[in-house]
Amino acid sequence: SSLLVGGEARRHGYDEGIALSVDGYLSEGAGENIFVIKDGVITTPPATSAILPGITRDSIMTIARDKGYEVREANIAREALYLADEVFMTGTAAEIVPVATIDKIEVGTGKRGPITKELQAAYFGLFDGTTEDKWGWLDYVYPEQK
């Protein structure tokens, strides 16, 4: 289905598509999980919305909660995308990517929002050491001593 979602999106001039569950709620992108931010609350579809519960999704949820944000897993109506302050997608390849427009309608200011920016910085900070690995996610590899 990810090929169909991505292919249809590109045929209509979009970079990525967003799929709906069989119940008509948001599901996920072709290869990413989706997050919707409204009034400082971060919501992502639950596993029952036909998503692949990704590792990056779980990591971002953990980081967001650690930063004091309320994170909800709940069904999200498609129309919520048009009212969102911010939307971003996560995935192994995508990592964390802000969404500027949906159906040619600007999300928030049409640029990366402050919460997305903060979460990106914290996530990427794990790799350069600026974010403490409080969760034991990283295995450090040291060069062999000669």
Number of helices: 4
| Count of DSSP strands | 9
Sequence stretches where pLDDT stays below 50 over 5 or more residues: none
* Envelope shape: globular
Strand share of the residues? 15-25%
Could you give a short account of the major beta sheet? 5 strands, mixed
Over the alpha carbons, how many angstroms does the gyration radius reach? Answer: 16 Å
Mean pLDDT: 88
The percent range for helix content is 25-40%
User: Which sequence of strands runs across the widest sheet?
Assistant: 5-4-3-6-7
Q: Measure the end-to-end span.
A: 51 Å
Structural class: alpha+beta
Oligomer: single chain
**What pattern of helices and strands is seen along the backbone?**
HEEEEHEHEEEEH
Give a written overview of the molecule.
It is a single chain. This protein has 146 residues and is α+β, with helices and mostly antiparallel strands. Helix content is 28%, strand content 24%. The chain contains 4 helices and 9 strands; from the N terminus they run αββββαβαββββα. It has helices at 2-11, 55-66, 80-83, 114-128, and strands at 18-20, 26-29, 33-38, 41-44, 70-73, 86-91, 95-98, 101-102, 105-106. The strands form 3 sheets. Strands 5-4-3-6-7 form a 5-stranded mixed sheet. The termini are far apart. The model has no long low-confidence stretch (mean pLDDT 88).
